[in-house]
Write a structure and sequence with these properties.
eight-stranded parallel beta barrel, binds magnesium ion, TIM Barrel, 42% helix
Length: 302
């Protein structure tokens, strides 16, 4: 076991977490969430996406949200851009990093971004080139690296194929996403191993949805391989509109508790993070979807 001493977390709550919410969340509340996350010590926050407002209405206020954030130095603000139209809109808001998002499954690629895997790479290539020329970092999200809601199990070879395509167009680092949370430690490790054929350990992050309750154990499996970048969602918010039934990412609170308990540094203040989760959960009218948060809140109330 070669566990990392430090883990870098990207909170994707404002984007992955909120994109699936039916009730419109005002930009002001999204900005309030980003402010609380950075106050809690998050150094990377996935803020919004520049996608079709007809497809994902919740992200239509991308400009307003990005313009409203009081940026903290040392924090990286990332946004999703599926094509040049999205990039042209995003660049006005000066993100630190853009994310192109593809899938290891053809059917999911079609449902999510309305094109094949090959076409998606053709669309991403000029986006990556323009971003790098503008000094903006580039990440690639790889959906359905373990299972797909339309195709079932996904073989590691397909993950390696996508990672190779991402590498070929200049994507600097990639997320191994278990979009529908069906993975277990060995299947997730195989998806990561397939990615490591093209990217180094420092360039790979884990993005695990918790639909089947496996995200924490899958994180541990990835940590044991030396992966030290992970994405998670405050209060366990979220899901993907094109992966029916998929729930949110693993809750950042639960991940931070796990990491700190193992002596792994995150730079995050768990109590402040719990407060950030309560803030957005109160707005949505529900309890945080985090076991750690609920336990700590019960303890606070006692
Ligand atoms: P399309 O229909 O193929 O695009 O959509 P098009 O080029 O044919 O244009 C059609 C219309 O969309 C036009 O508008 C364009 O202006 C507009 P109209 O003339 O009909 O009024 N359009 C855009 N509008 C705003 N921003 C843009 C843009 N591009 C075109 N960038 C597109 C292609 C990708 C835009 C569409 O399929 C889409 O928006 N899909 C939504 C994808 C999405 O946001 N999915 C969720 C995020 S991914 C995720 O959650 C997974 C992840 O978390 C990892 C994991 O867990 O797996 C990352
Ligand atoms: Mg996701």
């Amino acid at each position: 076991m070669r566990l990392p001493l430090r883990v870098q977390l990207i909170d994707v709550g404002p984007r992955d977490g909120l994109q699936n919410e039916k009730t419109p969340v005002p930009a002001e509340v999204k900005i309030g969430l980003v402010h609380r996350l950075q106050q809690a010590g998050l150094k990377e926050i996935e803020v919004t996406s520049y996608v079709s407002p007809k497809w994902v209405p919740q992200m239509a206020d991308n400009h307003e949200v990005m313009a409203g954030i009081a940026r903290q130095s040392g924090v990286r603000y990332s946004v999703l851009t599926p094509n040049l139209q999205g990039f042209a809109a995003a660049v006005q808001d000066r993100p630190d990093e853009i994310v192109v998002f593809g899938a290891a499954s053809e059917a999911f690629s079609q449902k999510n971004i309305n094109c094949s895997i090959a076409e998606s790479i053709e669309r991403f290539a000029p986006v990556v080139e323009a971003a790098l020329a503008a000094g903006i970092a580039v990440r690639g999200a790889m959906s359905c690296t373990v299972g797909c809601p339309y195709e079932g199990e996904i073989a590691p070879e397909r993950v390696s194929y996508l990672a190779g395509l991402m590498k070929g167009i200049g994507v600097q680092r990639v997320d191994v996403a278990d979009t529908i949370g069906v993975g277990t430690p060995r299947t997730v490790q195989r998806a990561i191993e397939a990615t490591l054929l093209h990217y180094s350990l420092d360039q790979v992050s884990g993005h695990f949805h918790d639909t089947y309750g496996q995200a924490l154990v899958n994180t541990l499996a990835a940590l044991q391989m030396g992966v030290w970048n992970f994405q998670s969602s405050v209060a366990g918010l979220g899901g993907c509109p094109y992966a029916k039934g998929a729930t949110g990412n693993v809750a950042t609170e639960d991940l931070v508790y796990l990491l700190h308990g193992m002596g792994i540094e995150t730079g995050i203040d768990l109590d402040a993070l719990i407060d950030a989760g309560v803030y957005i959960s109160d707005f949505l009218g529900r309890k945080p979807n985090s076991r750690v948060s609920v336990a700590r809140l019960n303890k606070r109330a006692a």
